[in-house]
Amino acid sequence: MAQLMPDELLKNTKLINELADVAKDTALLQGVLMRIQETPNLSELVVYAPFTLFPTAVPKAIYNQALAVQTNYNILVDKISQDADFLQETLASTIAVDDFTARLFRIHQQILKEGRAPSIALGINRSDYMLDQRDNGSLSLKQIEINTIAASFGGLASRTPYVHRHVLNVAGRLEESKSILDNNPAAGLSRALAKAWELYGSNSAIIIFLVEKSQVNIFDHRYVENDLWKRNIPTKRMQFEDIYKMGCLDQDRRLFVNDQEVAVVYFRNGYMPQNYSSEQSWDARLMMERSLAVKCPDIGTHLAGTKKVQQVLARPGVLERFFPDQPQVVEQIRATFTGLYALEMGLEGDKTVEMALAAPERFVLKPQREGGGNNIYGSEISEVLQRLKDSPERMAYILMDKIQPIPVKNILLRRGTTPKVTNCLSELGVFGVYVRQSGHMVMNECVGHLLRTKNSEHADGGVSAGVAVLDNPFLV
Asked: Catalytic: which of 74, 81, 147, 291?
């Protein structure tokens, strides 16, 4: 992948420092903000969200490929969420050894038993990719994962294009400045939430943003919230304990929290075991799932985003289950898959273990977890699999081919650090939204992108984890 900025510019320390100051001030002016870690629930002190000084070159054909496949990924996730047999078959081995997935699955089973499948489904997904360099030097788009719950940075990503345009202008690179893409995923996210609220059919009902106790990334949410308020749709920020203490279902299964009817619950929390700090948190999740309120995501869609589902989808013939007689769609999705391998007990899983132990540097070991920073690499793969190779606990993981992107030079701007040129790797995310009512898709769109870049020395971790930073693609 081509490097956008020439070496002579990157070596000009005086100019780089001047541009870094301009960039930080511009980010603050544009609202590319986070609360500081020391006071995560107060906005008295804020800092610019970490970002790159310059945009990153991305091949236009690969960028367009990622956008083009997103609406079919939306359909795939939605179909999986409704296929109870597939979810049960796929997750059977995982729920036997992974308590968190098992708890989610039990909620799913209870909802099915009660016959309470939602009539309105709302999906906000983000499919994440890296560019894989093949042996012949060509590049291909390969999916890392698809996030079906709490997909973040749609808000801040809507504000970063202006920052890079201004930096390039100040650097005297006017033509490059004009080529920074417009991007507003926040508008697409709020449009989907508004459509679900409208279909629910109560003008006095609210949208709940279900949030974590520590809210460093609150401004990312606020862009979506404010857009909803502009549409005269009221929102409230709540936590699991608020739902448990103040929530109830009426005889028609309508959800009320503090005497306010809830039309939509938008989960920006609930994707990691530690998000459920007590049994009350699980009781609150079950109450919401049993209600008529639209869940984003509902429990089936949450399970559709698990790593085990991702691995099984890569098996021959599985995509065809969801897209019969649509070979072009199957081919379009499958082209983004990298190698994914099961670790079930038995011959297939034993072969996977042997393959990983023989060349651990070629793979990533992935647990059933979201949120970044959970994957296992290199020698740690050997340590984990040596310990678990004869244990059913290995079934809590999947193995994936390690994608091999090309490092490029950029400068990562982060609070408390000095600007310096770094070898970087980038990850392209694509936001998709859909709304289904009674079996009919009333909305299915690709609504924007997110580019995140990190030091090539870091194997894993996102922006909130303090590893990656926000970026913009520059199409070449």
From this structure: 147
**R_g of the chain, CA atoms, integer Å:** 22
Mean pLDDT of the chain: 95
* Backbone CA torsion sign across 196, 201, 207, 208: negative
What is the C-alpha separation between 430 and 412, in angstroms, rounded? 22
Structure tokens belonging to residue 60: 């236009």
Beta strands in 221-259 (DSSP E): 235-238, 247-249, 255-257
> What's the whole-number mean pLDDT along residues 282-286?
98
Give yes or no for a contact between 95 and 463, defined as CB atoms under 8 angstroms apart. no
Closest CA to 371 of 468, 470, 450: 468
Beta strand ranges found along 268-420 (DSSP E): 294-296, 340-341, 363-367, 376-377, 397-401, 408-413
**The tokens of 143 are what?**
């999916």
- The catalytic residue among 285, 366, 369, 394 is 366
Asked if 126 is an active-site residue, the reply is yes
Given a cut of 80, whether residue 373 has pLDDT beyond it is: no
Catalytic residue among 349, 370, 402, 448: 370
Task: Provide the edge-to-edge strand list for the sheet that holds 363-367.
Answer: 340-341, 397-401, 363-367, 376-377
Average pLDDT over residues 28-41: 97
Which structure tokens are listed for 445? 């769109």
pLDDT at 374: 86
- Tell me how far apart the 2 most distant CA atoms of the chain are, in Å: 70
Judge whether 452 counts as a catalytic residue.
Answer: yes
Q: Which residue among the candidates 339, 371, 461, 466 is catalytic per the annotation? A: 371
| 366 carries an active-site annotation | yes
At residue 215, the pLDDT reads 95
Average pLDDT of the segment spanning 170-180: 96
Of 142, 452, 462, 464, the active-site residue reads 452
Q: Quickly list DSSP for 62-107.
A: HHHHHHHHHHHHHHHHHHHHH-HHHHHHHHHHHHTT-HHHHHHHHH
How far is residue 441's CA from residue 189's CA, in Å, rounded to a whole number? 16
Annotated catalytic residue, options 24, 93, 145, 289: 145
Return the higher-pLDDT residue of 398 and 2. 398
285 is catalytic: no
**35, 285, 307, 436: the active-site residue:** 307
For residue 436, what is the enclosing H or E element? Answer: strand 421-437
Query: Does 370 qualify as catalytic in the annotation?
Result: yes
CA distance 77 to 131: 23
Residues 261 and 3: their CA atoms lie apart, in Å, by 52
